[in-house]
Amino acid sequence: MKNSKRLFALLTAAVLTVSLTACSGGEEPSSTADAADDKTISVGASPSPHAEILEAVRDQLADKGYELDIVEFTDYVMPNVALSEGDLDANFFQHTPFLEEYNASNNDTLTAVCKVQFEPMGLYSDTLTSVDQIAEGAKVGVPNDPTNEARALNLLEAQGLITLAEGAGLNATPLDIVENPLGLEFVELEAAQLPRNLSEFAIAAINGNYAIDAGILDKVIVNESSDSESAQEYGNVLVVRAEDADSEKTKALVEVLNSDETRDFINSEYAGVFIPVF
């Protein structure tokens, strides 16, 4: 009886071992095949112009055998988080200084693989048509993230409204303001919030994509110059995880976003509001 029980136990163990081995052997090729057959590229983007530019390259990607999944975000934080956590293949919404700030703050290694377009930041107003109309003590809205706030301060300096400390450049903060002849009051807000709160300010420094989303392009007083330091530094980039910088998906995205067809689309669709930089 004891020998029968022992034989049964050994046979049961053998069957379980074969079953588990078969399952393991079946799953691994399937997983590899799934990875090879993954022809969907998921890209996080702000609605305009990034998602619109991506939509314009959909057919180009299809010609390369890829289906494009555009995931829209309305803030400057979650697209990088989602990419870092593996929920996206790439994102397209930011410039290199913003990316570098994110990586430094989060000990991350997200990587820019190409520049696409420059989006001039502008000074916008509900009530004014010239910087000469700005009154003493007026409230000025500026983005609260370091890179875009520095950009806003440089734009204000270019208009003669403030003077920044020598060498502050694109690292400027309000602490670098050494002359403020009108006694302007600076109010920091998340960049996406500035258009919807424009009425609270005499002027506000607003990123071009948010101005388009809010339909306020007709309220711009002045834009960054195309030959400014900002124009050289703040071209918007396609970003991927470092380990995916040379992947086939990434190569396909770079090719279509930097194609002649895409350049023509940006020039015709946005007529100088956004400028291709490739």
Describe this structure as you would to a colleague.
The protein is α/β, with parallel strands linked by helices. It has two domains: 40-119 and 234-276, D-Maltodextrin-Binding Protein, domain 2; 122-225, D-Maltodextrin-Binding Protein, domain 2 (3-Layer(aba) Sandwich), CATH 3.40.190.10. 41% of the residues lie in helices and 22% in strands. It is built from ten helices and 13 strands. It has helices at 2-36, 47-56, 58-63, 78-84, 96-106, 146-158, 208-214, 229-233, 248-257, 260-270, and strands at 40-45, 67-72, 90-95, 111-118, 122-124, 139-143, 163-164, 177-179, 185-189, 203-206, 220-223, 235-240, 275-276. The chain has a six-stranded mixed β-sheet, sandwiched between helices. The chain has a five-stranded mixed β-sheet with strand order 9-6-10-5-11. The longest helix is centred in the N-terminal third of the chain and has 35 residues, at 2-36. The protein is elongated. It starts with a helix and ends with a strand. The model is unreliable at 1-34 (pLDDT under 50).
